[in-house]
Each structure stands twice: as structure tokens, then as C-alpha cells.
Amino acid sequence: MKELLGTGVALVTPFNQDKSLDLEGLKRLVNFQIDNGVNYLVVLGTTGEPATLTTEEKEQVKKTVIEANNGRLPLVIGIGGNNTMAVVNEIKSTDLSAFCAILSVSPYYNKPTQEGIYQHFKAISEASPLPIIVYNVPGRTGRNFEPKTVLRLAKDFKNIVAVKEAAGDMVQALRLIQQKPKDFMVISGDDMIALPMTLAGGAGVISVIGQGLPKDFSEMIQEGLKGNVEKANALQYKVMDSIDYIFEECNPSGIKALLNSVNICSQYVRLPLVEASDDLQQKINNFVANY
């Protein structure tokens, strides 16, 4: 799927000080990505705080992004969870006409076996009219989605077209890239190793920092896809400290602090998350000032 090559960004959901949706901030965020070379947008991924949005608010977020984007970039929608039946029902009841793919996170908290993860995504595949990106983020789900399970799903279901791999394990990423079917895509879900994964044969990244520094980050991935190692590495080292900063406390508090620093949207998040500490905001402001 050529739409998923390069840099996708997992958009945050901007809030006002009273924690209501900041839809003007969301429009600015979308345009900032499009103006700076990002390849596709992920709506209501886990970075968008969907766990703390009402059904009505999710609809408003989708509508706002679709209208602001106005067909300019491919859109991916996040639909995942740890209740397989609820995920299947959400896919069946959602208007997916504006989207090119679904990003679906491996079930969290329940800690299913590899067979349970396989059966979860089998059910999703059978219900989905769109291609699916499966998402491995063991630091948040409590269970690694092992390469053998990803590859089994890739082989068995034609509409499972990619994995967003965010274990932060370069060896695991290399195994996936080495053994994957020809057209299956291995997309980094870890900003720090997105470039090495791309250089090793990955398809790019679904990024968090990419929405804060879209020009340099998306250019880095493009240079990586072309095999221009020196240029790509220079960009990696330029953005690298910011990646540490935005994940120092929690996501998306860190990236929202950076977006606040570059005047795109405010730093507000919803409980149980809290805004970046004054110390971290200062570090991020200093980084941006010297960038």
C-alpha cells in the first residue's frame, strides 16, 4: 500500500484549558502536517487520547480532520481495544469512507496468549472492509505481539497489510523485515529507531514527534527510504533530543508541550494524564528555541 510509505503521524487531540475539544487547534495541526511534507495522518490513534473521549467527541474529531484535510493526504483511523466483539462492532458501525486503512492495537490488560492475539485479529480482519495495520506496543499492552504471530496473520489474511512495530527492539524489527511476505509493510512505531528500521527495509514510521517537527522528521524518513544514509543520519541527530524529551513523562503530554512551544495547540491533556512538568516544558522550550 503505497499510501502507507513514509511518515504517518498519530495526531493528538488538542484541548482547551477547560478540557473541551479545541477544534481550531486540530485544524492548525492538520495543516501544519500537510504544509511540511508528512505522507499520511492517523486519526484517533492512542496518542489522540481516545480512551478519554466520548463517542460524540470522537465523531467531532473525525469530522474536523476529514474537513481540514480535504482529501489532500491519506487518512488512517485507529479502532482497537481489548474487547474483540466491541472492536468488531465499532468497525461495522463506523463510516469508513474517508479512510484508507484501520490501525488496531494489540489487546491490552487481558494479556492474551499468541493464539488469543491471532484470533482477535482474525475476527477484526473478517469484519473489516479496509486494510488493517496491526500494532505491537508491549510497553503499553503488557504482551509482546511476536513476529511469528504477525507473520502468520500476514500470510493468512490479505487485508492485514502492515504492522506498526513499537517494541523498541531492533532485532525483532529485523526478523519481521527479513521474514515478511513481499508486499507486507513493517512500519516503525518507535521514533528513536524509525530511521534504522527504514534503512533496514522498513516502510517508514507512524510517528509522535513527527507532528511537532514534521519537516525534518519526514525528510529524514524520505532520505532513509532513498538510502541516503549521511543526510538521514544528520537529521536524526538534529531531532534526537526532542524524542527523549517528549517521552520523558508520558505520551501525549510531552508532544503537546512541544506543540504548545511551536504555537500549534495548547499543552492540556485529560486525566489520568497530567500536563508536562514545568521542568520538562522548559527543556522543550529551550530545545525549540535552539532548533
Tell me the layout of helices and strands:
Elements: E1 6-10, H1 23-35, E2 40-43, H2 55-69, E3 75-78, H3 84-93, E4 101-105, H4 114-127, E5 132-136, H5 138-141, H6 147-156, E6 160-165, H7 170-179, E7 185-188, H8 194-199, E8 204-207, H9 214-226, H10 229-246, H11 253-261, H12 278-290
Parallel strand pairs: 1-2, 1-8, 2-3, 3-4, 4-5, 5-6, 6-7
The neighbouring-strand order within the major sheet is 7-6-5-4-3-2-1-8
Structural class: alpha/beta
How much of the residues is beta strand, in percent?
5-15%
Helix content: 40-55%
Subunit arrangement of the protein? single chain
Q: Could you report the average pLDDT, rounded to the nearest whole number?
A: 98
| Beta strands, count | 8
What's the number of helices? 12
Tell me, briefly, the overall form. Answer: globular
Low-confidence stretches: none
The profile of the biggest β sheet is: 8 strands, parallel
What's the alpha carbon Rg, rounded to whole Å?
18 Å
Query: What is the N-to-C order of secondary-structure elements (H for helix, E for strand)?
Result: EHEHEHEHEHHEHEHEHHHH
- Cα-to-Cα separation, first versus last residue: 34 Å
Overall description:
- The chain is an alpha/beta fold and 291 residues long.
- Helix content is 46%, strand content 13%.
- The radius of gyration is 18 Å and the shape is globular.
- The protein has an eight-stranded parallel β-sheet with strand order 7-6-5-4-3-2-1-8.
- It has helices spanning 23-35, 55-69, 84-93, 114-127, 138-141, 147-156, 170-179, 194-199, 214-226, 229-246, 253-261, 278-290, and strands at residues 6-10, 40-43, 75-78, 101-105, 132-136, 160-165, 185-188, 204-207.
- It has twelve helices and eight strands.
